[in-house]
Amino acid sequence: MSLAVMPLLQQFVVLLAALALFLSFVLLAQTRLVAAIHVFAWQGALVAAVTFTVALTGHAGHLYFSAILTLILKALLIPWMLHRLVRRLGLERHTERLRHPALVVMAGVALVIFSYWLVLPMVEQGLAFTRNIIAVSLALVLIGLLMMVFRHQAVAQVLGFMSMENGLFLAAVSATAGMPLVVELGVAFDLLVAMVLFGVFFFQIRESIDSLDVDRLNRLTEVE
Amino acid sequence: MAPLLLTLLPPLIGGLALFLVRALGTAGRLNLAVSGLTLLGSLWLAWTVARVEVVAGLGFRIDAFNVYLIVLTAFVGLTTAIFSRPYMEHVQASGRISVLNLRLYHGLYQAFMLTMLVALTTDNLGVLWVAVEGATLATVLLVSLYRTPEAVEAAWKYFILCGVGIALALFGTVLTYFAAQLVLDDTESGLTWSVLHAHAGALDPTVMRIAFVFLLVGYGTKVGLVPMHQWLPDAHSEGPTPMSAVLSGLLLNVALYAVVRLKMLVDGSLAATDTPHLAGALLMGFGLVSFVVAALFLHRQRDIKRLFSYSSIEHMGLMTFAFGVGGPLATFGALLHMLVHSLTKSAIFVTVGHATHLAGTQSIERIRGLIRTQPAIGWSLLFGVVAIAGFPPFGVFTSEFLLLTATMQTYPWFTVVLLSGLAIAFAGLFRHLHPMVYGTAPEGQTPVSANLLPVFVHLGLVLWLGLAIPGFLAEWLDRATALITGGGVL
C-alpha cells in the first residue's frame, strides 16, 4: 500500500492523523499536568483540521460545521475547563511520577502494532487510506485507555478519556465522512456534560480523600 | 406519533421542572405524576403497536421487541417512584442529604427515565449510544448522592469504567457505519437500524466481526458482564436504594437490548461465512462466565445490596447466554426472563430499602429477625428471594425452565453447568437470607413505616406469570421472538 498514489488531500489527512498519534504518545509520557492539557488541546486542533480537510474533499457539507464544533469543543472549551479546574484545585505545578515510563511507551508502541494487525484483514479492497486512518484512530483509543490504566491522578485519567474520544472523532470523520449530524451533536453534548461532571467529581474526590490520587480510593473491596 | 410523544415528553418536561421544585413533598408527588403519565403513554403505544405491528417515524421505531421493554421500563419507573417518595423523606429526616441534592435527585431520576426510553425507542444506532451514555451521566451523580468516601469512590469507578466501555461501543458503532457506507447508496441512513437490518446480508463480515467485539465489550460493560462488572456492585450498594432498583431492573435490560439488536445485524452479515454463530458463541461465553462467577461471589458478600447486585449479574449472565444460544425457545425464555427478573429484582431492592431503614445498616450480619420485628418486610424479602432463586410457582421458574429445556436441546452439556450454577446461587442467597428473616431480632429494633405496595404488585405479577402467562402477553413475546430469530414458538 503505497501512500504516494493517494490523492494529495488524503495524504494530508494521514499526515495530520499521524501527528495526532504522536501527540498521544507525548500525552502518555507527559508528567506535568498543565503541559499535558496543552498537548491535548493541540490534539483536538489536529482532529478539527482533519475534519476540515475531509470537508474540503467535498461529500458532506455538514462537516464544516462539525469541524468548527470539534475545534471549539476539543481545542478550546474542554482544555479551558480543565485548565480552570487545575487552577482552582491548586495543581498548576503538579507533576506525577510515572512508575515505568519506558515500559508504558513500549506498551503504546505495541498497541499501535496491534491496531494495524487488527485492521489488516478488514480492508482488503485496497483502501490504503481507510486502513491507515482506522488503525491510527484505534491506536488513539487504545493509548487513551492505556493512559487511564497507568495514571493514578484523576485529571490525567480524564485526559486519557478525552483523548480516547479524539480517536473516536477521528475515526468517525475520516473513515466514514462524518456521522449524521444529530448523532454528532448528541455525542458532543454527552462529552460536554461528562466534562462538567468530571469537574464536580474532582472536588468530591478531594473532599473525601484529600488528594486526587485515585489509587487511594480503595475502601470498596470484595474481601473485608 | 401521539402515543410516542406522550411516552417521551413527560420525563423530558417533568425532569426539567423537577430541578426547580424546592419542596420535597411536591417533588415526590410530581415525580409520581410524571411517571404515571409516562406509563399511560407507553400503554397507549403498546396498544397501537399491537394493532399496526410497527410504529415508525422521526428516527424512532417501535416494534414487538422494544415495546414490551418500554412498558416494563415505564411500569418499574412508576412503582419505584411510589417507593422513592417516603424513602427519600426518611433519608432527608435522617440528615444524610441536603435540599439541593434532593432536587437533583428527582430531576435526574426523570432524566434517567428519559434516556432509557430514548434508547429503547430510537431506530438510530448513534442515538442509542448517546442515550446509553446519557444514562451513565444521569445516574453517576445519584450514586455519589450521600457524599460519603465510599459513595464517591463507587461513583468514580462507575463513571470511568462505563465511560471507557461505552467509548469502545462508539468505536464499534463507527465501524458498523463504515461497513454500511460500503453497501448503502444513501449514506445518511447508515446508522438506521431498520435499514441496516434490511441490508444485513451485504455488510462486510470482517468489519462487522470486529465491530461486534467492540460493541459487545462496550454495551456488555453496562450489562454487567464479567470481567467488566466491577462497577456494578459498588454503584448498587452505595447509591440510594430506589436507584439500585431502577439500575438493576431497567438499565441492565436496556444495555442487553442494545447487544441483542446488534447481534441481529451481525448474524445477518455473518450468515454466509464459515463462522455464522460467532456473535452467539461470544454471548454464550461471556454469559456463562458471568453467571458462574456471580453465583460463586454470592457466598462472600457482607452487604445486603451487594448481595443482590451480584444476583443481578448472575441473571444478566443467564439471559446473555440464552440470547447467545439463539433459537426461538431460548430467545422466548430470555425475553420472559428479562421481564420477570426486572419485576422481582426491583421488588427485592424496594424491600431491602425498608429492611436497611429498619436495621439501620446494610451489613448482612447486623440485619436480624425481620419477621419478628416487622412481618410484612420479612415475608416480602423471603418471598422475593424465593422468587428470584427460581422456585415454582413464580415466573422466574418458568423462564429458567424454558432456558434449561432450550439448552438441553442444543448444547446438552451446558445444562450441567447451568444447573450447578443455579444450585450454587440458591445456596449463596439462602445462607444469608435465613438469619436475616428468621434470626432473633436485636433489642430495641422497632418497625418503620413501610409502603410495600410496589412489592406486592410486582411479586403478584411474577406469581401470575408463573401460574399462567396471559394469552396476549405470550403472543406479544412470541412476536418479539419471531422478530429476533425468524420463527416463533407458539
From TrEMBL, chain A:
<feature type="transmembrane region" description="Helical">
    <location>
        <begin position="36"/>
        <end position="57"/>
    </location>
</feature>
<dbReference type="InterPro" id="IPR038730">
    <property type="entry name" value="HyfE-like"/>
</dbReference>
<feature type="transmembrane region" description="Helical">
    <location>
        <begin position="185"/>
        <end position="203"/>
    </location>
</feature>
<feature type="transmembrane region" description="Helical">
    <location>
        <begin position="102"/>
        <end position="120"/>
    </location>
</feature>
<keyword id="KW-1003">Cell membrane</keyword>
<keyword id="KW-0472">Membrane</keyword>
<feature type="transmembrane region" description="Helical">
    <location>
        <begin position="12"/>
        <end position="29"/>
    </location>
</feature>
<dbReference type="GO" id="GO:0016829">
    <property type="term" value="F:lyase activity"/>
</dbReference>
<keyword id="KW-1133">Transmembrane helix</keyword>
<dbReference type="GO" id="GO:0005886">
    <property type="term" value="C:plasma membrane"/>
</dbReference>
<keyword id="KW-0812">Transmembrane</keyword>
<feature type="transmembrane region" description="Helical">
    <location>
        <begin position="132"/>
        <end position="151"/>
    </location>
</feature>
<keyword id="KW-0456">Lyase</keyword>
<protein>
    <submittedName>
        <fullName>Formate hydrogenlyase</fullName>
    </submittedName>
</protein>
<feature type="transmembrane region" description="Helical">
    <location>
        <begin position="63"/>
        <end position="82"/>
    </location>
</feature>
TrEMBL record, chain B:
<keyword id="KW-1003">Cell membrane</keyword>
<feature type="domain" description="NADH:quinone oxidoreductase/Mrp antiporter transmembrane">
    <location>
        <begin position="123"/>
        <end position="419"/>
    </location>
</feature>
<keyword id="KW-0812">Transmembrane</keyword>
<feature type="transmembrane region" description="Helical">
    <location>
        <begin position="158"/>
        <end position="180"/>
    </location>
</feature>
<keyword id="KW-0472">Membrane</keyword>
<protein>
    <submittedName>
        <fullName>Hydrogenase 4 subunit F</fullName>
    </submittedName>
</protein>
<dbReference type="InterPro" id="IPR052175">
    <property type="entry name" value="ComplexI-like_HydComp"/>
</dbReference>
<keyword id="KW-1133">Transmembrane helix</keyword>
<feature type="transmembrane region" description="Helical">
    <location>
        <begin position="410"/>
        <end position="430"/>
    </location>
</feature>
<feature type="transmembrane region" description="Helical">
    <location>
        <begin position="451"/>
        <end position="473"/>
    </location>
</feature>
<feature type="transmembrane region" description="Helical">
    <location>
        <begin position="127"/>
        <end position="146"/>
    </location>
</feature>
<dbReference type="InterPro" id="IPR001750">
    <property type="entry name" value="ND/Mrp_TM"/>
</dbReference>
<keyword id="KW-0560">Oxidoreductase</keyword>
<dbReference type="Pfam" id="PF00361">
    <property type="entry name" value="Proton_antipo_M"/>
</dbReference>
<feature type="transmembrane region" description="Helical">
    <location>
        <begin position="65"/>
        <end position="83"/>
    </location>
</feature>
<dbReference type="GO" id="GO:0008137">
    <property type="term" value="F:NADH dehydrogenase (ubiquinone) activity"/>
</dbReference>
<feature type="transmembrane region" description="Helical">
    <location>
        <begin position="241"/>
        <end position="260"/>
    </location>
</feature>
<feature type="transmembrane region" description="Helical">
    <location>
        <begin position="200"/>
        <end position="220"/>
    </location>
</feature>
<feature type="transmembrane region" description="Helical">
    <location>
        <begin position="104"/>
        <end position="121"/>
    </location>
</feature>
<dbReference type="GO" id="GO:0005886">
    <property type="term" value="C:plasma membrane"/>
</dbReference>
<dbReference type="GO" id="GO:0042773">
    <property type="term" value="P:ATP synthesis coupled electron transport"/>
</dbReference>
<feature type="transmembrane region" description="Helical">
    <location>
        <begin position="280"/>
        <end position="298"/>
    </location>
</feature>
